[in-house]
Amino acid sequence: MIDCEHVLREIELFLDRELDATESKHIQEHLAECGGCLERKEFRVTLRKIVAKKCGPSAAPEELVSRIRALLSDESS
């Protein structure tokens, strides 16, 4: 089983479906058992929805995406 640190480091790739099937399965299993990580995942999902709504139908600027990912990465450290 993987640990919380690993899950939080990979959560953005998981949400973007950029992980292989095995890694995604391990993260999904961890999320099913870890309320703390599940809460952080749900926060990121909600944040993505807010950003998408505020940025309209076009994609968020890459600089904004990078800044948000950096902030979220700092949060999980």
Question: Mind explaining what this structure looks like?
Answer:
It is a single chain. With 77 residues, the protein is mostly helical. The protein has one domain (4-76). The protein has helices at 4-15, 21-33, 35-55, 62-76. Helix 1 packs across helix 2 (21-33) and helix 1 (4-15) runs parallel beside helix 3. The mean pLDDT is 90.
Q: Sheet bearing the most strands, described? A: none
Span between termini: 20 Å
Helix content: over 70%
Radius of gyration: 13 Å
Number of DSSP helices?
4
Identify the notable features of this structure and list them briefly.
77 residues; mainly alpha; elongated
State the gist of this model.
This protein is mostly helical and 77 residues long. The chain is built from 4 helices and no strands.
Topology:
Layout (H helix, E strand, L loop, with lengths): L3 H12 L5 H13 L1 H21 L6 H15 L1
